[in-house]
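Predict fold of Glycine betaine/L-proline ABC transporter ATP-binding protein; 337 aa.
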Amino acid sequence: MLSCKNLWKIYGTAKAHSIDPELSPGENISSVEQRGGFVALADIDLSVAKGEILVIMGLSGSGKSTLLRCLTRLVEPTAGELRFEGQDLRAVPDKSLQLLRRSHMSMVFQNFALLPHRTVVGNVELPLEIQGVRATERRQKALDMIGLVGLSGKEDHYPHELSGGQQQRVGIARSLSTNPSLWLLDEPFSALDPLIREEMQDEILRLQKTLSKTAVFVTHDFNEAARVGDRIALLRKGQLVQTGSAAELILNPADSYVRAFTASAERSRILTADNFMQRGEPDAFDVQLAAEATLRKVAEAFQGGASVIAFGNSTGKPVGFMRRQDLGDALTSAMTA
Ligand SMILES: Nc1ncnc2c1ncn2[C@@H]1O[C@H](COP(=O)(O)OP(=O)(O)OP(=O)(O)O)[C@@H](O)[C@H]1O
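Predicted 3D structure, encoded as tokens:
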């Protein structure tokens, strides 16, 4: 649905704003720096499939927000290709781009960005108002979205009368009111406390499934990335270090930077049976779980008395198994990965 190829973003002096396709990324970075420029994004290749949640991660200043914004040209890339639903996004004229963004894309921000003098319903219907949707229709759509994010009864409240979590629910309802196909979320929960954060992560997953959205989600929290993301793209100083599932990043980190990011990962909640199970159908088993069952679920089943657990694929056919004694090995390699 959305992809970029050899994408660069350079800040600084005008004479630094060029890339030589004949040079390697490293040579281009040196050349830009010699000309007084700053490389915010270097040679990024990335794609997001329809219905997928891609997470962009990295340390502060690694280029996460810049990349998110470059993907929709909210920040203009310096070089590279950008495609959205088959269109060459860099070739779309500004006016059409604005229309495309309004009807197909939407963004949720860290600071909620609500208008303080507008009520909840007034905030949620704003994008529809900008689109020129008639008053009765936009009110109905806004009320539907408010119901969907669990804020019915708060329609006429003002933002300052709501908790942080409720304010972000308004931000989410507003971002979904135009039914965008691409949903961009820039550290949407970093201002919320941990318990509310987990609740909101589940909410994002629920809404994304119910409304079948494609999403790009920025965070610096690996556990949040693992919870909401199908894949994680890890940036360091504007360069893509590794892209993969949370389990792939934990079990096969490309380098020590990736390893450091996964150090705090809640492994028993992220790693699943199919990362460790023995392949094949067991002769006999006590319990069957899905192959995507987390190690925590597997441990609970063994604790419940099972000696052999079978793991089924999406059709329920057993495709692997684990004996009680295998769990210790799995946990040891999970903890030391
Ligand atoms: N308009 C700008 N002019 C010059 N440099 C910029 C500009 N915008 C961003 N940068 C630089 O680009 C780099 C990447 O910034 P960006 O905001 O994308 O990082 P980030 O990974 O999202 O950081 P954080 O987690 O702190 O939000 C930073 O070094 C930043 O200072």
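The domain at 45-267 is CATH 3.40.50.300 (Rossmann fold).
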